[in-house]
Amino acid sequence: MNRGVLKQLDFEDLLPLPTDMNPSSCHEKLQSCWEAQWNQNDSDPSLFRSLFHAYGWAYLSLGLLKVINDCIGFAGPLLLNRLIRFLERGSGHLEGYVLAVSLGGTSIVKSFLDTQYSFRVAKLKLKLRSSIMTVIYQKCLRVGLAERSRFSVGEIQTFMSVDADRTVNLCNSFHDMWSLPLQIGVALYLLYTQVKFAFVAGVAITVLLIPVNKWISELIASATQKMMKQKDERIRRTGELLAHIRTLKMYGWELLFSDWLMETRSSEVKHLSTRKYLDAWCVFFWATTPTLFSLCTFGLFTLMGHQLDAATVFTCLALFNTLISPLNSFPWVINGLIDAFISIRRLSRFLSCSEHQYQQWKLVDSPYSSGNVAVVMEDACCDWSSSKSEELNIIINHITLTLPKGLLVAIIGEVGSGKSSLLNSILGEMRLLHGSIRSARSVAYVPQAPWILSGTVRDNILFGNNYDSKRYCDTLQACALDVDVSVMAGGDMAHIGEKGVNLSGGQRARIGLARALYHSADILMLDDVLSAVDAQVAQWILNNAILGPLMDQKTCLLCTHNVQAISRADMVVVMEKGGVMWVGQPAELAISEYSAFLTLTWSNALLQCPVQESCMSSSEVREETELLSALEIAQEIIEEELRKEGRVELIVYKKYAAFAGSLIAFVILLSAVSMQASRNGSDLWLSYWVDTTKGSSETASSTTFYLVILCLFCVMNSFLTLVRAFLFAYGGLRAAVKVHATLLCKIVNAPVKFFNQTPSGRILNRFSSDLYTIDDSLPFILNILLANFVGLLGIAVVLSYVQVLFLFLLLPFWFIYSRLQFFYRSTSRELRRLDSVTRSPIYSSFTETLDGSSTIRAFNSQDFFWAKFIEHVALYQRTSLSELIASLWLSLRLQLLAAFIISFVAITSVIGSRGNLPVSFGTPGLVGLALSYAAPIVSLLGSFLTSFTETEKEMVAVERALQYVDIPEEELGGCQLANLDWPSQGLIEFQNVTLRYGPTLPPALRNLTFTIPGGMQVGVVGRTGAGKSSILNALFRLNPICSGCILVDGLNINNVPVRDLRSSFAVVPQSPFLFEGSLRDNLDPFRMTDDIKIWDVLEKCHLKDEVEAAGGLDLHIKESGMSFSVGQRQLLCLARALLKSSKVLCLDECTASIDTRTASLLQKTLSSGCKGTTVITIAHRISTVQDMDCILVLDHGVLVEQGDPKDLLEDEFSRFSSFAKASTM
After folding, report:
1. The ABC transporter domain covers which part of the protein (predicted)?
2. Which of 218, 430, 574, 765 sits CB 3.0–4.6 Å from 582 for a disulfide?
């Protein structure tokens, strides 16, 4: 605490974790109980029972502490009764002092017991939280992709961010479930001793409200369930938007996606508002209950002919006060229980998924265990559905295959023939429906889209293995990465952003390959790694990595379209429609019916060139890789997450109030103050009543008069409570809607650079965790804060009015209180910020693991990732433990302070009753009122500060959201509106264009000047990183150019509004992008084209048959288009671009994942179907661009060669012909 006042807290200042709170021991405890449950009942294991076996007895034993604590709470009202009776009699002064001191003493004992109970429950909650988080994470590592397809990524992220917390809250609700009725029961019995059966009137009101509240809580539960479903969908869509933001910006679709997201948000808000308004009714019923209770009880008591006296009235009021808390808490307890059970059910469904089965050799009974066979498949059928799914869509169809050890096996076939699925089935990621698949245990795998970790280059290659410098350097050299690494800022310790955002596609593929080589596994499975690099690098990799010394005696399964790789393989497997059609050697392939895969579509000019087998020397590769674009050199180091210091600034509160509406904020304040005034008014009226009628007999008319006034106060109080509850619900909803809309708008309009520097997990944290706080818990805690504040204000005013001496106490009391809360708040704020910062890595690493779980399982690196996750959770636990102990430190001191006030009021009353003081303390009625008001000060002061601190902590969520409201925006505007048919010719002119990715980085394009006439098809070639993709970045204004200008049809694109510009061009991005939804929406989201034209384009792209077989245009595409192969996804993206009928079409490596035959068919489609369209193709395969009208050769961002491909091929010294010679693709 001292450090928190003196400086900004850091991780080393946090408390160490006790052994029993260590995440790994917590995990083992719950995991063993869950496994026991699973073994007993594998069809429907219960997570609740597992939690009970793990922590139930420790938790139940705390119940005893709670019983004692609750019982001591009732000593207060009983002692108060005795004290007021003593004051009325005015005799035996020693008894008065004993009673007064006892009153303070019980408060002190209760405060110590309270703190102990809270501490132990909170510790248990932390253990439970880390158990649940680690169990969910481990499940993600263990569940195969097919089995996981039952859940969307958004849903699984919600398990970790929301459901885990809700399940943990069960600890609070469960004991309260029996403790609150017990407290209510004892309070009612004590009321009976005071007012006999008159209390039944009050009870009747309460009992009548119970079914009403039950009905409301059922409605709340159903609204919550619907809201969570929409929330999952919104988080999934937000994740999709963030993951593909660059592509969406190129398409000009970001607004469309944000509109779809807003639709999901509005249906989420619809259920949220139902929930909030029902909550408001709950609050209203429970807040008016005490006032109605006192009105009915005292009314009936006097109508039964009894006379009210001070002792009866104020003991009853004290008992009503002890009733308020349990009655108010009860609906929240029920809601908390309902939420927890819904979440437990959701988690049970996920945790009971069957786990990833990897079929390794059974050494005893396998006929293949002699050691010369790598993979055996016997009549294997696999599909991508989960074990619970009824529909079967067989992808791997009755394959029988034996692959010997130590061979290079090329797996070939057209797009969508099942090549990637074959690798996945061997890895055990698919559901095996029939037959068997076995393979050697040690496997390394590089997927088609390599999975890149957020971390250093070295981390990505080592992947948890030990560092062996010789092997490491050999691996870098074999994968042509040594020079890339040498020019990166920081070498191999350079930081790679999330999903490898600051690497080129070729670098990502080579890092994936380096990881597989370094791993030294028995089998390497490479899914199309050569397509992402250019011809010369591909050849180097083939010679030095795939066929190099590092692969000695290893088996390599290579899915490829690369002709050279096929011809140099030991064995070729041809796939078609999920089946193996042919197996043999490359020489036999040339004379088989599948010889087309070896045919080269070279022009005659090239055939006349002597195609020598190129063996690039290391120096040539070095020359090649030095041509890195600035983007790749640009290590836009991921920015550390900002953490504000000091208090949450007043401006944050003002902005939140502005989001809710300033007028509404003012009216809420007014209604809260008026509500408290009417409450205090009714209590003062009661004390006036007992004092004026004391000793004199009441007439029926006077009783009626007193009752009517009391009734008026009661009606006023109820009305104002209702107004406050509904206004609060409305204001909170309005703020939540505005914060989300503002945040989304800012994120969508942010420049691409922002996304390169900010991990999407961090942005997603704002949209999931922080927004959940703003939606739900912030308005709730603010409401409590306001109620506590006006409650305290009311008490201070009444006590000062009744006991003048209390005014002298107010000043020192306020001084101590403010010192305490200042001391606490400076620490607690920092802890909450540390809490947010330690929570982000948990979600980031979780999201990252979800993306790469198949790679992690293939490398058998689960333990390494598990250990990293445990570290993140342990740090989070330390922050939470420190936060907890700080809040209990404060709560104990506050309760002791309040005990002192009670003792002070009680003792001065006793002294005053003897008439020894100059100031009169008024009547027993007022003294009773003062004492009954002093008693709840304990809880009010504590909850005021807790709610104040909690509000400040929850406000951190608003502060974090506002950080992203201030991010820079893209330049969206333009001074010149283009015509609807612009560009009509497609004439593109680059005039001295220079582009840098950062002020300190070398230019990616240097004074680039060229003209592409309208309708011309141009190929852009150059070695990896020559600046090819930078041309598109400049054309689409993804990065602003430093100098020069770009004209399209004579119009400077800088003057055209950026979204109009992007939507006027068609593009096929390097990474194919499909989103969850129907195929029709994926191809034509704006619904501008009729079905006939869509089918026509699909036919041109050779996809018509596959789409018809899969279910037509209404086919539902799963997340990221998992139901299609990468090649098919690229063809769908091409179909989408052709549907746009733009005069400018840009293709970025779009045939990389397509077999040579389909690629040549596509070339014909482009040349015939795109007549009159300007086509810019960036390609690694020379065959892709050899039929173009013109070639641009780039080097270091400079245009070094331009001309007709045939002429360039004939010139032996041209750059283009040297590329062609090196390439046999």
Report:
1. 375-602, 988-1221
2. 574
Provide DSSP, 682-703. HHHHHHHHHHHHTTSPPPHHHH
Place of tokens 């929930």: 275
Distance CA 535, CA 1222 (A): 7
Residue 631 has pLDDT above 50, yes or no: no
DSSP string, 1100-1146: HTT-HHHHHHHTGGGPEE-GGGTTS-HHHHHHHHHHHHHHT--SEEE
**Which CATH superfamily is 373-588 part of?**
P-loop containing nucleotide triphosphate hydrolases (3.40.50.300)
Phi, psi of 45, deg, nearest 5: -70, 150
How do residues 193-232 score in pLDDT, each as one tens digit? 888 888 788 778 777 877 787 788 888 888 988 998 898 8
Which of the 8 DSSP states describes residue 494? Answer: P
d(CA 798, CA 423): 78
Nearest to 665 by CA among 786, 794, 772, 788: 786
Checking if the pLDDT of 634 tops 60, the result is no
Angle between helices 93-142 and 310-351 in degrees, nearest 10: 10
User: DSSP of 134-169, one letter per residue?
Assistant: HHHHHHHHHS-HHHHTTS-HHHHHHIIIIIHHHHHT
pLDDT for res 309 = 78
What confidence tier does 1225 reach under pLDDT thresholds 50, 70, 90? very low
Q: Which residues contact residue 1061 at a Cβ distance below 8 angstroms, ignoring those fewer than 6 apart?
A: 974, 978, 1036, 1037, 1053
The angle at the Cα of 704, spanning 702 to 707, to the nearest 5 degrees, equals: 110
Measured distance between the N- and C-terminal CA atoms of the chain, rounded to whole angstroms: 68
Element (H, E) at 253: none
Comparing C-alpha atoms, which of 284, 161, 208 is closest to residue 783?
Answer: 284
- Give the three-state DSSP class for 131: helix
Ramachandran region, residue 500 (left: φ > 0; alpha: ψ -120 to 50; beta: rest): left
Q: What is the pLDDT of residue 389?
A: 72
Region 1161-1168: mean pLDDT is 74
pLDDT at 788: 87
Query: At residue 328, does pLDDT exceed 80?
Result: no
Please report which confidence band the pLDDT of residue 630 belongs to, taking 50, 70 and 90 as the band edges.
Answer: very low
Q: Residue 399, SS3?
A: strand
Query: Could you tell me if 1010 and 1174 are in contact, meaning their C-beta atoms sit under 8 angstroms apart?
Result: no
Model-wide pTM > 0.85: no
Query: β-strand 1066-1068 against 1198-1203: which pairing, if any?
Result: unpaired
> Order of strands, edge to edge, in the sheet holding 1198-1203?
1066-1068, 1144-1148, 1174-1178, 1017-1021, 1190-1195, 1198-1203
Distance CA 73, CA 187 (A): 10
More confident site: 600 or 12: 12
Average pLDDT over residues 267-277: 91
Tell whether omega for the bond before 1205 is within 30 degrees of 0, i.e. cis.
Answer: no
The per-residue pLDDT for range 660-704, each reduced to its tens digit, is: 888 998 999 999 999 889 888 888 887 888 777 766 655 666 778
Task: Tell me what the mean pLDDT of segment 711-715 comes to.
Answer: 88
Whether 368 has a pLDDT exceeding 70, the answer reads: no
Q: What is the pLDDT of residue 267?
A: 92
Whose CA is closest to 754, among 251, 253, 246, 1120?
A: 246
Closest alpha carbon to 798 in 690, 906, 913, 684: 684
**Whole-number mean pLDDT of the chain?**
82
Question: Residue 6: phi, psi to the nearest 5?
Answer: -80, -35
CA distance 907 to 771: 50
- Measured CA to CA in angstroms, residue 743 lies from 444, 735, 740, 759, 959 at distances of 41, 12, 5, 16, 12
Q: Is the dihedral of CA 25, 29, 31, 36 positive or negative?
A: positive
Assign residue 1211 a region (left: φ > 0; alpha: ψ between -120 and 50; beta: otherwise).
beta
- The set of residues, in sequence order, having a beta carbon less than 8 Å from that of 882 and lying 6+ positions away, is 14, 15, 831
